[in-house]
Amino acid sequence: MAYFTEDASVETVNARVSESADPRLQTVMASLVRHLHAFVKDVELTQAEWDIAIDFLTKTGQICDENRQEFILLSDVLGVSMLVDAINNRRPTGATENTVLGPFHVDGVPEYELGANITQAGGRETCRFYGTVTDLDGNPVEGARIDVWSDSEDGFYDVQQPDIQPRNNNRGVFTTRPDGRYWFEGIKPVSYPIPDDGPVGKMLGKLGRHPYRPAHMHFIVSAEGFDPVTTHTFVAGDKYLTSDAVFGVKESLIAEFTPIENGETLWESNYDFVLHRAT
Ligand code: BEZ
Ligand code: FE
């Protein structure tokens, strides 16, 4: 099979791979070629369509810099990020489910005492977040690290508006007490569009898809001896829950946000995290 034919396209390409290549790489590439060729044959791709695809991928690469990763966004809107996440984070029933990390997590943010307010500017819809971290048997997890971040009331993360929002606005790290409890103040998050001024946004527009994510608070909950959980809690009732642009919503992650009368905050939201022991 030295020469390429339409019928034997897959075998011809895969036969070129050296047997000394990394075995996992051989497996992954052989499958990629098989599926890619099947796709091209299935839709009988025209030359003009392939040119458009190459131009799209070129523009996707060209818009990337240290602050913008358009390929991850592409993976997100195609459901690939959530699929990889699902395959790599299978957990027993009852353990808190994962969802996408997203591009706006920041390392090294301030660690606060329980109860602190993570909103430094622009927080009208104040909210108290609270709950517990336990293991699958309901035992409290002391010293769990809870890393949280949300958008502002205008729907932007601090890193998207470095000249407008203070650094680390709506971010913080907390540690659970011996009884597994955590609590902190922030704002009730709002729904927002993913960055849609690039090729991925254009593609969504052509597909008649909106770029919005339902309102959510991001969490990474980790503790010694347990699988870390990267997740969000989603605001119950949000109009984008069933059409999240990046497919991140899971029913178990939808949390009630309840208005409070005469409280220190206008809203409160309870969510209990359940960690699975690392195997
Ligand atoms: C986020 O929730 O921050 C996010 C996730 C995926 C793409 C864009 C934003
Ligand atoms: Fe987000």
Which CATH top level class of the largest domain fits? Mainly Beta
Which percent bin holds the helix content?
A: 10-25%
Number of domains: 2
Helices and strands, in N-to-C order?
HHHHHEEEEEHEEEEEEE
Rg, Å, rounded = 22 Å
What's the β-strand tally? 12
Largest pleated sheet: 5 strands, mixed
Coarse structural class: alpha/beta
How would the global form be characterised?
globular
What does this structure look like?
This protein folds into two domains: 1-44; 77-275, Protocatechuate 3,4-Dioxygenase, subunit A (Sandwich). Helix content is 25%, strand content 20%. It has six helices and twelve strands. The chain is globular, with a radius of gyration of 22 Å. The relative contact order is 0.16. The model has no long low-confidence stretch (mean pLDDT 96).
Annotation keywords:
279 residues; alpha/beta; Protocatechuate 3,4-Dioxygenase, subunit A; 2 domains; 5-stranded mixed β-sheet; 6 helices; 20% strand; globular; binds benzoic acid; binds fe (iii) ion
